[in-house]
Write a structure and sequence with these properties.
alpha+beta, two-stranded antiparallel ribbon, 2 helices
């Protein structure tokens, strides 16, 4: 694989990690969002998957982010009969977002982004050295 193709693969991975950060940010922003109607469902956490996709114009496989999917885990319940979103028994459904999990996911995305950026920097440096040698 030549250096330019390796930079393309790293760039596609950076785009995928950027999308992952957007999904994590949305989850964190809605961590306390409850339904506006009594007994209704609150915000449901979203998860992102990655796939290996052939880019025919480049002739190589790149990383792509899939569509965000809803996390089917259960909501948490809290007893608060005075809350407008409380059901007939006085329970309010809370989102299935756990901030500590989201922060860990965000940190992992950040590290992966940085690793791909380093790979691009190294490839650029190698291209510069090759050009210097050819002069």
């Amino acid at each position: 694989m030549d250096l330019f193709k390796s930079m393309q693969v790293s760039a596609s991975a950076m785009q995928a990690q950027g999308e992952r950060m957007r999904v994590v940010s949305e989850n964190l922003a809605n961590a306390d969002s409850v339904s506006k109607e009594p007994g209704g469902d609150p915000y449901r956490r979203k998860m992102l998957t990655f796939r290996n996709e052939l880019d025919r114009s480049l002739g190589l496989r790149v990383v792509k982010a899939g569509k965000p999917a809803a996390d089917k885990s259960d909501f948490t319940l809290s007893y608060d009969p005075s809350h407008p979103a409380a059901d007939a028994n006085g329970y309010v459904k809370r989102p299935n977002v756990r901030p500590i999990i989201e922060l860990a996911d965000m940190r992992e995305a950040q590290r992966s982004y940085e690793a791909n950026l380093s790979a691009i920097d190294i490839a650029k440096s190698m291209v510069s050295r090759i050009i210097e040698l050819l002069r």
